[in-house]
Every structure is written in structure tokens, then in C-alpha cells.
Amino acid sequence: MMKVSVDQIVDEGGGIRSFYFRPEDRRQFPPVLPGAHTLLRVTKGMMRQYSLCAPPGDRRYRLAIRLDPAGRGGSRFMHESAHVGDIFYLSYPQPDFLLDPDRPSYSFFAGGVGITPMLSFLYALQGRTCRIRLCYFVRADGAVPFEQEIRALCPQVEIFNSAQGGRASFEDLLDGSRGDAIYCCGSAPFVAGVQGAAESLGLGTIQVESFVSGVKAGYLGEPFVVDLPRSRHVLDIPSDRSMLDVLLEDGVDIDYACEAGVCRSCIVDVIEGEIIHRDQCLTEDERRTVMTPCVSRGRGRIVINSI
User: Distance from the CA of 123 to the CA of which of 4, 117, 148, 305 falls in 20 to 30 A?
Assistant: First the structure.
């Protein structure tokens, strides 16, 4: 990972702050493709995934982080404890939500902080002759986050602020996007709503960014046992807890970020036992020997040799 320091913090409104980072262990950051994200090591063991959205020409990395008081602690730490000059670690850019640069027209649907990858798309399309449309759904009592920046980049912007009664039908909006390359980013319900509307209109597949899997809280599967020969610990994983939760409670030093089987941060090696895979990131070859303990489980007893 890259050692970085906080160079600037900007309050964007709507509970979102932009954190600008500069490199500490190199002269400049690697280049970033539009839509790429990075993993931010918030504290030891805790990693979070954020889109990179700095304007072209700014040699810093920008992460826009929305405060979620009911979240898992990453955003709260950054909003309450991060200051200019503080040291953090970032992964190299991860290009998993990428823009097709050769389409004649685009429709972008953004919900809340899901606007961040769309910002990078808008910057990448500057100077192009293509048609660009942005539908931005937000809840903001005051200033709409990034509104001035967005309007400077995209002439066709529709902002629906639910705090001021702004509402719109996904079907009606998508009906005006036929033939466009459609991209969507936001909360899981927001993405599901846009996808469902697109399917009902027969628009086919749209490109989405989602860090949430379909694994539900509550009953997660049959209990199993994890044997950790390096630490000589044997852990019981109950039916209502993830293996990652139990490992962290036992004091195991393991990185994690999405807790949804998407980002690959928590992968561990399995040398014995049957794995019940529920991730969305491993190849079939990888699944023979590794697993993501945030969502995947074992059957009976498994042996982990990497932690």
C-alpha cells in the first residue's frame, strides 16, 4: 500500500467531506482511470473502499466520504478524528467500474455519495461531442454536495433533492435514456430500483457500482469450526456471525473493507476443509484454496494457514 498524508479537508455539505491526500513514499501517485476506487486503511485492520474523484491536473487523490453515524466506524473515524497532516495508507487504484469512452451518449444515475465515480466520468468526457445526462438523487437540507462542480461539467443535470420534496420516477427518467450507455451508483436500494426500472423497460444491462452482496444478517448458515494452527487457536463460528467477526474478536490481525465479498481485502488461505463460497470476487481456481471470511463459510471444520 502507498503511504499518504491528508493535505486538505473540504466540507461539501450533506454530511460529505472531501479528503485530499498527497504521497509520502513516492514523488507522485499512479494514474487513475475514471471510475476507479482505492482502499483506505482507516485504522489497523479496518479498510474502506472509496471512489477516486480528483479533477484532472490535481496530482493529489481525492476521496469523498459521507458520515454514516450508524455505519461500521470508518466514516465516523475520518470525520471525527482525521486531520491535515495525518498519515494513512491507500491501495493502488482498483479499476472495476470503468467508463466506455466511445459511446455517443451517456446517462448517469447517482444516489447520494454515489455521485463520486460520476464526477470522474464527467471529467473524463470533457471536450467530447457526446451527449451527457446526469440524474442526481440527494437529500440535503442545505447546499447540494458538488452542485457547482457538477453544473460546470455537465449542461444537462437533473437534481432531485428529497429534503425539498424532489421526486422522480426511475421509469420516466430511463425512458429518456434509450440508446444511452447507462451507469448507476448509490445505495443498494437505489441501485436495485434503477436496475428494476431498466429491466421493466427492456433496456438490458446497465453498469452499476455496488459494494453490497446479497448475504443477509441473522441466520448466515450452519455453525462450523476454524482451526488456526499458527496461533494454536480453534474458533467456533455460530450460525448468526461471520467468520470475520469471530476472527477480529479473537484478536486476529486481518485487513477488511467491504464486508460483502467484493473487495478481496480479507482473503485467507485454506489448507483443509470444505468452503461454502458466497463472494463476488474470486475466480474458480482461487476458490480451491482461498476464501473471503466476511461472507463465505466452512462446512464442519476448516484449517486456515495464513493468519
Answer: 4
